[in-house]
Amino acid sequence: MVLRLARENESWGYRRIHGELALLGIVMAPSTVWEILKDAGIDPAPRRDGPGWPEFPRSQAQGILALDFFAADLLNDTKAYVLAVIEHGNRRVRVPGATEHPVQSWVVQQARNLLMDLGDAGTRAKFVLHDRDASFTQAFDAVFQAAGIRVTRSAVQAPRMNSITERWIGSCRRELLDRTLIWNLRHLMIVLREYEDFYNSHRPHRALGQAAPLRPLPGGVTDLDHFRVRRHDRVGGVIHEYRLVA
């Protein structure tokens, strides 16, 4: 019975198995359960074979889309809510849109637009990950579920479960929004589109070996005598890119 419970419940440790046996009226010491599992070559600790949360995003990275909303203050005394999407596998970022009022009809339309963009890019998602923000309604999730995509909600007050998106939002704030005066919603989308292109085509990522999501690293420089670099400014000089001069 000990071995059966261990086989059918990957996350159960010897103490959990001992408790289940007690409910069945089987009296034995927890140490006996431990010895039975060890003698059978089974780790008595919990989560013997199944991946935990840190391993899950890494093992399924190619099929995970992570979403989140973040707020941006505008100079017209309003606040905009930006929807950000990032592909775990290649770190590509998409900013489907921003709005002052993230009502259900708007967020559902963003979900539909996102699926069309993914289809045009040939990207196949298996999981959509987002937090429990009220803007992510059941109708929003239903758009992805109808396409065969499983929706996973992170736990309450657990930003590390969506850490890749949280880090991107932090980078966007530090590198762009905290250094730019945004006049209105239209201006916000202009600068966000510029940052999206910069992030996908130029910004290095440690997870990708310092390559950009849509741009592999070039070959090593060998001719140092003709090595020339030119700076390219984005968003009015807030962001700098450096490129080799042909």
Fold blueprint:
Elements: H1 2-8, H2 14-23, H3 30-39, H4 55-59, E1 64-73, E2 79-87, E3 93-99, H5 104-121, E4 127-130, H6 138-146, E5 150-153, H7 163-175, H8 185-201, E6 229-234, E7 239-244
Parallel strand pairs: 1-4, 4-5
Antiparallel strand pairs: 1-2, 2-3, 6-7
Helix pairs in contact: 2-3, 5-6
Describe the structure.
- It is a single chain.
- The chain is extended.
- The protein folds into two domains: 2-39, no CATH class; 55-208, Ribonuclease H-like superfamily/Ribonuclease H (Nucleotidyltransferase, domain 5, 2-Layer Sandwich).
- The strands form two sheets. It has a five-stranded mixed beta sheet with strand order 3-2-1-4-5, with helices on both faces. A two-stranded antiparallel sheet has the order 6-7.
- A hairpin with a 5-residue loop joins strand 2 and strand 3.
- Helices cover 36% and strands 19% of the residues.
- The protein is of the alpha/beta class and 246 residues long.
